[in-house]
Structure formats: structure tokens, C-alpha cells
């Protein structure tokens, strides 16, 4: 997290922002899978533009020929043609809207799923330095903010551009001189709209960052943990004031975004609204031999086409502003999609059918940051035979948890390698790795779902009998069966309806369902009272039978029967042996035992 509390943001480097032309090309590639439907939309747009310019010509014939000459039959046909054109145009518009909205929503879906899938591939390090609310804001607010642009802007651009071209061609066919007068100010209008778009793009970037801050604040302070902390620390009023300030800043940015360039855009609309009067004035002044140079029918038809020109022109200018604004949102999404995947599946992954569970650390080095002066782990050499147990102990910050997380590839080594059954874990397929290694951590995570759904997260096709068997092995079945809804009981937000020991045993039951040959226990009982620890430890002992077990220990009384105990100090192995051997050596392990409050004693006298 950054010092200002805003969490992770992409590093700002000179020239790192994607240039608009390149970004526009990248946006267009999002629509490539739907180019067939877009082609149909384009045809409908072109047809609609052609139909829309027919009516002014029919109107000219009504005013200059049918009415003056009293030709009622022709008048009826012309009016029928105008009505038919309106009906056909309306039908084209409905079909066009259906297709363009469908394409837009599919693009939105593709973006959401691409960002989510990409984030699923990020290493644990990314999520330790990024606020959850920031991630949620990118997926919900940023992509949601692009919805109108993606679903309608592309079609609007094509439709309005086609209408403008068709209107200009028709106006030139009626009278080129009046057309020139009508188009004199268009370059100025385009320049103004581009300036307004640039202003709104900058404001939109600030607004989305503020939305991300608010999302983070809501996610953190209105969670169960956040409410408990806020109330017990007497900070509820303070949190409310902070949220009010953030909301006030967001409201100010929304107003600025809405008003940016508003007067200039309104000035454009005023000028365009006044143009018909100017055309009438110009036509009235232009005389040839005392008579007007254009007929009344031509003049009315021309003004009708001019209105048909100005409406899409204003829409085009407004759409241009929206596109520039949306570029800020696309940039934020592309920043996530461009994040390098630190832990990727190899191009030719190794699939292991039968896994015995031998784990080796061969010259393992690890740094969280390449610029880190001292490695978190250095020169780790360890072997855990299949079915054996290794306990990892040491002072806080010695690298215990980091060492255990290298086995399931939550992090990748920066030197040496970690192997399972002789194969580097970086060469294994993700499916093999997840099947091989199960992790039970100190902080148990449960979804806001039923007990059964939480257990089936490990094995979606598990039968009810398998759930009961797993819960029984974790010594939690009787408690679940005693609940009013049994296995259908909702666990609540993050499982707060259950005690720490019950959540831990539910996590164990979930891991039992997965049935991994290698088990990682990351201080799984450190936060429990002695009685609950005993029950959970018994469940762990039952789970560990026949499995390779690596235990990160906080309470040393729980690991005295381990086959090997390794003592880490500042990322290096300083002692390795059984409990009795290390007690007899009288070194670092014995000192840790004394500090814990129990005198060093043989493993037979301790808790197994």
C-alpha cells in the first residue's frame, strides 16, 4: 500500500501512457469477434441515412409541384412516400439498436471476464499490496462506466457520420451556395469539442480514482471485521466523517465533469439553431433579376436537410467528447490487463497421474523485491520424504510462511528450485499442483454461502456422504448436524456465525475433501484457545496420516512429534533435527521452547 493509503496504482513513467491512436486500435480489436453483426449494423445505418434524406426531396416536390399544380394524385403518393420512409427508418432503428446493444454487452462481458481471469493469474504478492476495493472498482465502476460508450457510441459514430455525409451530398444537390454557408463554422465546432473532451478525460481519471478510494473504504469499513474494529475503537463517527469527505470530493468531481465545456457546447447548439434563420436571410438577400435564386420548396427542403445535418453533427461532437472521456476508463482497464503475470503455467506443463508427495528445497533463494538488499530466504536445502512431516519454526519474520508458500507456487523462487516427486513445481500444470498440495492457513476464509457449498468449493461433485465423512474426520460433523438447517446453514460474512475453532475445522474438512498428498499447515492453531486447539490438532493429526506435512508452527507444543524440525533465522536454516536432538543441542530451538514457557523435554512427554 502506498503511504497515502490509496493502495496499488501503476507506476507513472514518462511516456508510459498509451498514445490515443494505439489505444483506439486496441479498443477496436475488442469488437473484432463481432464484425459480422457490426457489418449488418453498418448496412442498416447506411440504409437508414439514405431513407432519411428522401423525405426532403419529396417535400420539395409537394411544395413546388403537387400543391401549386393541384395534382392531388401526386400529392397523395408523395405523402405516402414520406410516411413509408418514416416507418422504414423506425424499423431500421429498432433492429440496429438491438444488434448494437447486443454487441456492446458482449464486449463488456469479454472485458469483465478478461480482467477477472487475468487477476486470477496474478501472484499472491499483487493482492498483498493492492486494496480489494481498488480491484472491485476497476471491474465494477470502470467497466460499468464504459457501458454507454461500448453499447451505443460505436453505432452512434457510424450512424451520425453516415447521416452527415448523406445530408451534405443531398444539400449540395439542392444548392451548393447555401451548403457552403451552412458548413463555414463546422471546423471551429470540431476544435471546441476536442478541447472539451480533453478536459473531461482528465476529470474522469480523477473521478474514477476517487470512486476506487470510496469502494475501498466501503469494502474495508463495512465488512464484519471493519464494523467490529470501528465500534470497539470508537472510530465509527470518524469513519463516517472520512466517508462524507470522500463522497463530497466525488460529488464535486461529478459536477466538474458535467459542466466541463458546457457553455462552449451550448454555444455550438445556439449557433446551429440560428442557422436556419441565417439561411432564410441569405436566400432572401440573394436575388437574380428581382426573383429569389431558389424556390420555396427548395429552400424548405434545404432547411429540413440542414436540420438533419446539424442533429447528427451535434451528436457527433458530443460522442467525440464521450469517446475522449471513455479513453480514461479504457486506460485504467488496460493497466490491469497489461500487468505481467508473475506466476504462469509453463508452455508444456507436466501432468503427474500418481503423486507420492516427496518435497525438496534445493538451494532455494527468495526475494519479494529484486531491489531487496537481504533475501527473505537464502540457500534453503531441505528434503521431506513422501508421508513425512516437517515443522518450520523461528522468530517472527524469519521466513516461515514464505517457505511454505513456495510449495503451492503462491510465490515463485528467485533462486534454486522446489520439487514435488522430483519435478520442479514451476514445470507442473496448475491442475496437478492444486491436486497435489492443500493449504490450511491461520486465517480461514469462508464464503457467504451454506456449509455444504463452502465444503464443495474443494470438490464440486462431492456427494452428501463425502461431506459427512470429511466433516467427521475434521471433528465438526456433530456440530453441523446440530444446527437448525444442518449442512444448509449459511455461514455468514467470512464465517462469523462460527467460532475460530469451528471455522478452522470447516477448513480442514474442505481440505480433506480435496485429499491432497502434500499438506501445508500455516500456524493453523495459533489463534485458538487450548481446548479448541486440542480438538483442531486432533483433526489435523488425523488428516496428516499418510501425507507429506509441512507445518509452520507458532506453538511449539504442537510439533514435537514431527519427523524433522527446521529452525529459520533471517531466512537461513540454523538448526535441523528431531525435537529430542534439538533440545539436546541446547541451541536456538531450545531457547524458543524456554521463551514459550515450557522447559525443554523429550518428545515422549510432550503433546503429539
TrEMBL record:
GO annotation terms (biological process): oligopeptide export from mitochondrion
GO molecular function, one term: ATP binding
Positions of the UniProt region annotated as Disordered: 1-21
ABC transmembrane type-1 domain segment(s): 40-325
Pfam families the record matches: ABC_membrane (PF00664), ABC_tran (PF00005)
Organism domain of life: Bacteria
An example Gene Ontology CC term for this record: plasma membrane
Broad class of the protein's primary localization: membrane
SMART domains: AAA (SM00382)
Keywords linked to the UniProt accession: ATP-binding, Cell inner membrane, Cell membrane, Membrane, Nucleotide-binding, Transmembrane, Transmembrane helix, Transport
Mode of membrane association: Multi-pass membrane protein
Transmembrane portions of the chain: 38-63, 75-99, 164-192, 289-310
Biased composition (Pro residues): 11-21
Annotated localization: Cell inner membrane
ABC transporter domain span: 359-595
Family recorded in the similarity comment: Belongs to the ABC transporter superfamily. Siderophore-Fe(3+) uptake transporter (SIUT) (TC 3.A.1.21) family.
Protein name: Multidrug ABC transporter ATP-binding protein
Amino acid at each position: 500500500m502506498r503511504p497515502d493509503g490509496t493502495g496499488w496504482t501503476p507506476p507513472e513513467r514518462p511516456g508510459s501512457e498509451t498514445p490515443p491512436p494505439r489505444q483506439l486500435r486496441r479498443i477496436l480489436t475488442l469488437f473484432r469477434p463481432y464484425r459480422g453483426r457490426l457489418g449488418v449494423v453498418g448496412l442498416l445505418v447506411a440504409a437508414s441515412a439514405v431513407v432519411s434524406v428522401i423525405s426532403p426531396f419529396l417535400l420539395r416536390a409537394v411544395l413546388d409541384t403537387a400543391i401549386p399544380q393541384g395534382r392531388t394524385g401526386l400529392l397523395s403518393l408523395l405523402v405516402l412516400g414520406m410516411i413509408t420512409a418514416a416507418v422504414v427508418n423506425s424499423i431500421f432503428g429498432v433492429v440496429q439498436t438491438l444488434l448494437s446493444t447486443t454487441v456492446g454487452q458482449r464486449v463488456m462481458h469479454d472485458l469483465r471476464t478478461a480482467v477477472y481471469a487475468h487477476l486470477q493469474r496474478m501472484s499472491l504478492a499483487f493482492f498483498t499490496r493492492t486494496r480489494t476495493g481498488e480491484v472491485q472498482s476497476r471491474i465494477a465502476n470502470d467497466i460499468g462506466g464504459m457501458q454507454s460508450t461500448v453499447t451505443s457510441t460505436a453505432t452512434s459514430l457510424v450512424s451520425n457520420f453516415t447521416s452527415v455525409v448523406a445530408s451534405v451530398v443531398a444539400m449540395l444537390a439542392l444548392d451548393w451556395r447555401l451548403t457552403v454557408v451552412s458548413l463555414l463554422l463546422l471546423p471551429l465546432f470540431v476544435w471546441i469539442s476536442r478541447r472539451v473532451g480533453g478536459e473531461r478525460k482528465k476529470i474522469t481519471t480523477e473521478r474514477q480514482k476517487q470512486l476506487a478510494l470510496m469502494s475501498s473504504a466501503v469494502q474495508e469499513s463495512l465488512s464484519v471485521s471493519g464494523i467490529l474494529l470501528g465500534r470497539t475503537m470508537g472510530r465509527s463517527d470518524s469513519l463516517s466523517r472520512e466517508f462524507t469527505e470522500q463522497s463530497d470530493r466525488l460529488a464535486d468531481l461529478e459536477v466538474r465533469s458535467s459542466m466541463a465545456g458546457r457553455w462552449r457546447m451550448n454555444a455550438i447548439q445556439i449557433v446551429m439553431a440560428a442557422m436556419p434563420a441565417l439561411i432564410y436571410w441569405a436566400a432572401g438577400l440573394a436575388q437574380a433579376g428581382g426573383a429569389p435564386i431558389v424556390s420555396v420548396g427548395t429552400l424548405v427542403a434545404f432547411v429540413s436537410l440542414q436540420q438533419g445535418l446539424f442533429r447528427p453533427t451535434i451528436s457527433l461532437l458530443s460522442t467525440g467528447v464521450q469517446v475522449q472521456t471513455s479513453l480514461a476508463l479504457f486506460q485504467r482497464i488496460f493497466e490491469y490487463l497489461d500487468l505481467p503475470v508473475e506466476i504462469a503455467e509453463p508452455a508444456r506443463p507436466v501432468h503427474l497421474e500418481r503423486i507420492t508427495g516427496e518435497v525438496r528445497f534445493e538451494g532455494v533463494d527468495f526475494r519479494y523485491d529484486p531491489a531487496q538488499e537481504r533475501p527473505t530466504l537464502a540457500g534453503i536445502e531441505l528434503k521431506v520424504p513422501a508421508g513425512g512431516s516437517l515443522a518450520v519454526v523461528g522468530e517472527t519474520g524469519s521466513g516461515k510462511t514464505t517457505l511454505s508458500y513456495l510449495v503451492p507456487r503462491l510465490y515463485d523462487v528467485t533462486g534454486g528450485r522446489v520439487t514435488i516427486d522430483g519435478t520442479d513445481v514451476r514445470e507442473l500444470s496448475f491442475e496437478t499442483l492444486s491436486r497435489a498440495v492443500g493449504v490450511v492457513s491461520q486465517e480461514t476464509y469462508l464464503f457467504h454461502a451454506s456449509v455444504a457449498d463452502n465444503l464443495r468449493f474443494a470438490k464440486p461433485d462431492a456427494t452428501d456422504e463425502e461431506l459427512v465423512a470429511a466433516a467427521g474426520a475434521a471433528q465438526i460433523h456433530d456440530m453441523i448436524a446440530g444446527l437448525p438447517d444442518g449442512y444448509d446453514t449459511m455461514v455468514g460474512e467470512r464465517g462469523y456465525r462460527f467460532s475460530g475453532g469451528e471455522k478452522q475445522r470447516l477448513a480442514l474438512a474442505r481440505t480433506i475433501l480435496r485429499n491432497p498428498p502434500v499438506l501445508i499447515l500455516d500456524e493453523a492453531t495459533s489463534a485458538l484457545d487450548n481446548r479448541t486447539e486440542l480438538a483442531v490438532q486432533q483433526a489435523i493429526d488425523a488428516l496428516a496420516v499418510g501425507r507429506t506435512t509441512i507445518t509452520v508452527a507458532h506453538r511449539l507444543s504442537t510439533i514435537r512429534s514431527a519427523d524433522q524440525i527446521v529452525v529459520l533465522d533471517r531466512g537461513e536454516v540454523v538448526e535441523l533435527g528431531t525435537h529430542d536432538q534439538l533440545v539436546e543441542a541446547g541451541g536456538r530451538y531450545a531457547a524458543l521452547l524456554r521463551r514459550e514457557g515450557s522447559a525443554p523435554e523429550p518428545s515422549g512427554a510432550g503433546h503429539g
